[in-house]
Specification:
Layout (H helix, E strand, L loop, with lengths): L4 H27 L1 H8 L4 H7 L3 E3 L2 E3 L1 H31 L7 H27 L9 H38 L1 H8 L10 H36 L1
Antiparallel strand pairs: 1-2
Helix pairs in contact: 1-4, 1-6, 2-3, 4-5, 5-6
Length: about 230
């Protein structure tokens, strides 16, 4: 897991780069590929895109690289501002990073990230790819948003859980191998430097306080029982 803000931004950068390219391919080739070929009378999706002058976005036609760049900027901003911090907090409400296996906690973070980012990016895509040439209607926008969520959520969930995030973690561990090895050799009392370690320390302290309260409660019960027997 990322340890500081720089590592978090690099982790998000790798994730978004892979995810945006995967989504553009999924949207153009899998979801809309047949329609593009039928409308433009071509035998390939790429030929259809070139024939119509690019990908339709925000009322005009843009080259594929421009669409990827726009979606990357939006996704990277949302991932750093909303996806990464909120998914960690949501996962921490369900799982204890100290008591639960790290794999379970990381899986919870991935699921929470998909649950946040998929509707958010689908909503932005509903604006970007809205058919403005036919006029604007709010209900049409909402319907397109719902359709995009239904298309994108299964793809996002399974690819992030089983392919993208495992691959990103391998790349991240390769890039920061020395830091990860140094972290493994640190003493247990080393101060927490990231959110996960801080929350782990909080859970440890809560456990200690609960034990102290339970001990004090047992001591008082024993004292009350002793006073009653003596009287």
């Amino acid at each position: 897991m990322p340890r500081n803000q720089l590592q978090k931004m690099i982790f998000a950068f790798i994730t978004v780069v892979i995810t945006v390219h995967a989504y553009v391919f999924y949207s153009l080739y899998v979801v809309n590929g047949n329609v593009l070929m039928q409308v433009n009378g071509t035998n390939s999706v790429l030929a259809a895109i070139n024939k119509q002058g690019g990908v339709y976005m925000f009322g005009t036609y843009l080259p594929i690289w421009a669409c990827i760049l726009i979606e990357f900027c939006l996704a990277y901003f949302l991932e750093n501002v909303m996806g990464s911090p909120l998914s960690f907090k949501l996962a921490s409400r369900v799982f204890n990073p100290v008591k639960n296996h790290p794999m379970m906690f990381e899986t919870a973070i991935i699921c929470a990230t998909v649950g946040l980012m998929c509707p958010a990016m689908s909503f932005l895509a509903a604006w970007l790819y809205y058919p403005y040439y036919a006029g604007f209607n709010l209900f049409t926008l909402l319907a397109n948003w719902l359709k995009l969520v239904c298309f994108n959520f299964p793809f996002a969930f399974f690819t992030q859980l089983f392919f993208i995030q495992p691959f990103v973690r391998v790349v991240f561990k390769t890039l920061f191998r020395k830091d990860i090895e140094a972290r493994a050799t640190e003493p247990e009392h080393f101060a927490a430097e990231n959110e996960q370690e801080a929350i782990a320390d909080i859970f440890n302290r809560i456990g200690e306080i609960q034990e102290e309260l339970a001990h004090e409660h047992r001591r008082r019960k024993a004292l009350e029982k002793h006073i009653v027997n003596k009287s």
